[in-house]
Amino acid sequence: MKNSLKRIYLDTSAYVKHFSPEPSSEAVDKLLELCEEGRVSIVMSYWAINEAIAALDRKFRRRETTLQERNQAIATILAETSRLAAEGKLVIIPVTQENVSNSLRYVVEKHLSAGDALHLFSAILGLCSIFVATDQFLLKAAKE
Hints:
Elements: E1 6-10, H1 12-15, H2 25-36, E2 40-45, H3 46-61, H4 67-86, E3 90-93, H5 97-110, H6 114-125, E4 130-132, H7 136-143
Parallel strand pairs: 1-2, 1-4, 2-3
Helix pairs in contact: 3-4, 5-6
């Protein structure tokens, strides 16, 4: 992966759209297409994978998707994420005790949830110049 590539952080709310069509899915699909082409570098926290799978399971529990659709989407997330990371096109920031500890300041200073604070810290750690999410409160905190 080239250091000169623009680094874009994908929050779970954005990443999951690629695997479960929703409003704004096309924009996320385009970012991942640019990533595949080697034109941008996508960064995300490993925590986003867990959150994305939980979001898909929530849709299943609400009867918005079938069991087969949920399971296929989960398998696709795991396979595609692993492939992109192995190819060096996706940077996954690990969830470590140090990263969680360092993210706590954003809980207190920006009043973010623990998960959102971890995403914000991961974006900073990943040297991202763009932060993509659907949560306006989180986006505001990221801009500051």
